[in-house]
Amino acid sequence: MNVETPIELNAENKQISSTPWWKGAVIYQIYPRSFYDSNGDGVGDLRGCIEKLDYIASLGVEAIWLSPFFQSPQADYGYDISDYKAIDPSFGTLQDFDDLITEAHKRDIKIIIDQVYAHTSDQHAWFEESRQSKNNPKADWYVWADPKIDGMPPNNWQSVFGGPAWEWDARRQQYYMHNFLKEQPQLNVHNIEVQEAILETMRFWIKRGVDGFRMDAINFAMHNRALTDNPPALLDMSRVTRPFDMQKRIHNQSQPETPLFMERIRQELDKFGDIFTVAEIGGDEAPSEMRSYTADNKRLNSAYSFDFLDGPPVSADKVRGTLEKWTGEGGEGWPSWAFENHDARRALSRWSAPENRWDAARCYMMLLLSLRGNAFIYQGEELGLPHGEVAFEHLKDPEAIANWPRTLGRDGARLPMPWVKDGLNAGFSTGTPWMPVDPKQAEFAVDTQTDDAPCMLRFTKFALSVRKKNKALRLGNMNFLDTGNPSVLAFTRSYEDEQYLCVFNFSDKHSKWKHAVGSGHIVQFSDDSLSDGHEVPADLPAYGAYWAKRV
Ligand code: NOJ
């Protein structure tokens, strides 16, 4: 694998930057609605984020990614934007956002915002105009199509959240397309005017000081204009809960023109310096699309997929199979990895049994922080939170309500952050929280995890500080070792003359591994039984993990 090139030169061959700030960064994801409520209305807000900046800085992360806080009817909790340049009043004001940027930058924390360019809210002024007639100035800003002769939708495309991807609109006497909820009409990103509007939105936020963009569901941005039916996926039906999964989604999304639009975006953003871009890529073609969307250092900087957000539990084979696709060669971009976010069940609850919680949480955190790429930590992951329990009557996610109980289970990942174990609403809000606090999560509140005793929070901070200090862990090449034990994963991360050995036991049993890689000194061990400087061991306790500096 190639060594990362740390220096970039401009046309006069002058060094314009060293490694960009985002390369190897650890990024903390905030779901603002559930992070901290500063005004007692039950909904987390931007002032709440400002009040918790010292906490975030104490973790040692380099950046924050904020899920959407823009004006929105909240049909999909902010992923349905009705004005890209306004803050939803439930989250605060533009002044609050400007203050958040200022205060974050004072603490050397960058701000990444979430941009949703595949669809808007049905209450966006663009859609209001578009739906009025077939010949208004924005008539072609969304994806409209005539019904079939029998009144049926124009093709068989299905929406992610269930049911056809088409909704009838009597004003235009046409169907409009929506890949997600019917309240999220699909933008026609093929249209150059729409592309211009997107670029204009990006410029607006860059001028306010943002440092990067997470691009939501961006491989959904364009559709096949011939509206060709998707072919069937022919899966084992017992595994499928949504008609969406019964198709090969090759025409409603994933069009070859989308990465070219990413190039246009990059050309624009390059005018403003190191603005970070990361694509969210879901679907069966994620590995090749991640590659294509970040190719040749002329599209987006990075991409992440659902590799570790759904599917089978983490394993040595899975990590190796996934990461070995990222060799750093052939004009490849830089990957990003997430084990948890607002769309997925908490990793601890997916991958390990409750009795192994602490050992597993430490093992997974070390793994996340040693994968070659950027690491996203989702609020509460640093505490080792289990997935939240939500009773049916408290569900908010429309997908969860519609498909109960066979759901994606997103609400359990979106419960209020527990700050104080015994405080009102776990210290999240003095009002009635928009979703109730889970008492099981409150057990692990921030105030229970202090720096003066071993705990997950302290462990996370320490692991982050080790990664931050060592270029091998931040930027180094990755080479897998044969461990002779399917439960044990081992790889090295190397940068110049620095090398780290990273070893993980994913089993709930003690495991041995083929330990033939020379010596090294433990720098971080997932439990406290081995001290700093200890020689590397050939056996590991259940969920044991270590980083050792090669000597
Ligand atoms: C991905 C987002 O993460 C998810 O929360 C949202 O529902 C969909 N995209 C649609 O925007």
From TrEMBL:
Instruction: Mention any Pfam family matching this sequence.
Output: Malt_amylase_C
Limits of the Glycosyl hydrolase family 13 catalytic domain: 29-414
Its family remark reads:
Belongs to the glycosyl hydrolase 13 family.
Extract the PANTHER family matched here: ALPHA-AMYLASE FAMILY MEMBER, NEUTRAL AND BASIC AMINO ACID TRANSPORT PROTEIN RBAT
Please report the name of this protein according to its UniProt entry.
Alpha-glucosidase family protein
Organism source for this protein? Hirschia litorea
Source taxonomy lineage?
Bacteria, Pseudomonadati, Pseudomonadota, Alphaproteobacteria, Hyphomonadales
